[in-house]
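Take a look at this chain, tokens included, and explain the fold to me:
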Amino acid sequence: MMTTTALSSISNGYIDSLADKDPGWLAAMRRQAFSQYESLPAEVSPLYSKYSDVNKIKPASVHFAAQTRQQSALGKDLTDRLKELEQETGVLQVGQKIHRVFVRDSVAKQDVIVSGIKEALSKHGDLIKSRMEANPLNYLEDKFLALEASAFQSGIFIYIPRNVVLEDPIRVITSLADDGTSLVSRNIVVADTGSKATVVQELYAPGSSGRQDVQQGYFELVETHVSPNAHLEMVTLQAMGADTVNVSNRKAFVERDGKMSWYIGMFGSLLSRYKTDSVMKGPGASAEDVEIIFGVGNQSFDVMSNLIHHGQHSRGRVLVKSVLKDTSKSLFKGMIKIGKEGKGTESYLAGHAILLDRGAKSDSIPGLEIETNEVKATHSASVAQIDENQIYYLMTRGLSREGAKREIVSGFLEPLSRKMGPTIRAWVNYLIENKWQGRQLMLRTDEAMEQILEVEKSRYRETQDIFEKHYKYR
């Protein structure tokens, strides 16, 4: 019989059992983080407490396996994803187990590292330690950050060496186990000086099959370390089961003239709670965070994105757009923080929501903390019901009411998806279409995907042609 530990029952003994397998320096970090976890409230700031839906997490029903177990045979969907990975560079993780790792020969020859976090700690411990010590975490910021830093069971490590430019993305596919257990992961990506890469993360969960005493959850800490003149893109497509919970803390540490790009599409889970901190440490550093949320039923999305400027002439941009149906909810929290050394900074923070039904709800709480002058910092937020006049106009042109809504939503999201490459746009649009139709949220290379991908590639070529020809308006 499998032994599990409930989230409500995590103790020093449980953390010690995980720390026993770690190097001493990491074990000390685990214990320090857990000491903070026990004392923190679920929502640290009272400003956000009344808006939070964190009570949708049922700690007594979230269970973690005491040891890695063999996953039963992969279902058809994950088997198909595995076949696709065989032609690329990437990782398939199911529960705690790193199921397979694929690295193309051309990528391996450039000394790129893609592995599970446990293997990386044994082979590249000094590299990981140096980055963690250079960019220490403040566990008092968030209760779940402290949980993820102390109780992680697994994770992925990716290292892009100096001056290596990868044309194709590294794929990270993570699915929760089929036994109803939850997972805590710590994922670390290091982009060395002058490198450039894209990491695409897909998140899935089979769900608890309607069991009232089990709630599956995926808790993750993602750390990205972007060295001088490096550019890292992190794309996340969250398509987990509708009865699961997903909590993610994301930290980017960006050095001189480096660039960090977050692209996130949130579609699944009962509760999605994402906190993204982009820390621009060096002069000329930049970061952008583009997020698309599509909620139905009673889903809740709790999103926080902070731009933290320490270096001079740094640039930051956050754009979050939510589309909400039925009684779904979104909460957008964001802060621009410019330190005393951040002269010449330009920063922009925006959260916008469109409500498709009367029962849907969205709140936005942007803010500024500025400790110097000679900066540009702007924030904006808007929440509005869908425009009935626009629906009527489109219906007079032959569209059904539902078709009119979809066209309006497409136009609302277009400025965000335009920032992504054609393949990422196709994946996002595919998941949006599946969600609208009530189909399973899983990327597949089927006929519908091929059609969407061809449309997006065609649009991308047309856009390039327009700029290359320098059209003049007469």
